Amino acid sequence: MNEIVADIFSATHTPYQVVLARLSGAILLGALIGVERERRQRPAGLRTHILVSLASAVFAILAIESVHMASLSGPEVRIDPIRVLEAVTAGVAFLAAGMIVFSRGEVRGLTTGAGMWLAGAVGLAIGFGFWWIAAFAAFASLVVLLVLGRLEVALDWKSPDEFAGTADGQRGDAETPASDDERK
To answer: Where is the composition biased (Basic and acidic residues) (predicted)?
Structure first.
């Protein structure tokens, strides 16, 4: 039993307080990106963006910790944290691609997919300790989603219905209404 307790509370290279701060930051900034998508009742909303950001931060922290694990040292072991960036980027891109639909001659869900991809990048940035990069990217996403969307309407590049996602009379993304699970 003592071995189990020792394993649970084993020392990490990154102090626990820093790990918890990074995970909390990933949750907060993921929410910042997802709140606009949730408000517009898109299929990938607040929870999805939080989870993508949080998972990405966890993978980044694990990459950092794995480099410093004594059990993973030696000439036969090669650890490359950059592979984590590649794997998370590919995994989130796969999820984001699922949001993009071509229907009735229009591409839908591209902004939501891009937001998910950005949430993954923000989570990675925080997980690796690049707080300012993550914060700037998350706040810039709000500007893009809120301000530029309204600017497109003001310049008559999009109709108010297109901006609101109601061009076909539905609320939210026309290709897929938000599921009951996503709204709860």
So the answer is: 170-184
**pLDDT of 30 strictly over 50:** yes
Instruction: Name the domain count of the chain.
Output: 1
Report the first-to-last Cα separation within the chain, whole angstroms: 40
Q: Is residue 6 part of a domain?
A: no
Assigned domain for 182 exists: no
Structure tokens at 90: 């590919």
For tokens 């990217």, name the residue: 137
Q: Is residue 9 part of a domain?
A: no
Q: What is the pTM of this model?
A: 0.78
Q: Is residue 8 part of a domain?
A: no
Identify the three-state secondary structure at position 156: coil
The pair of three-digit structure tokens given for residue 125, joined into one six-digit string? 């940035």
Backbone angles phi, psi at 2, to 5 degrees: -60, -35
**pLDDT higher than threshold 70 for residue 70:** no
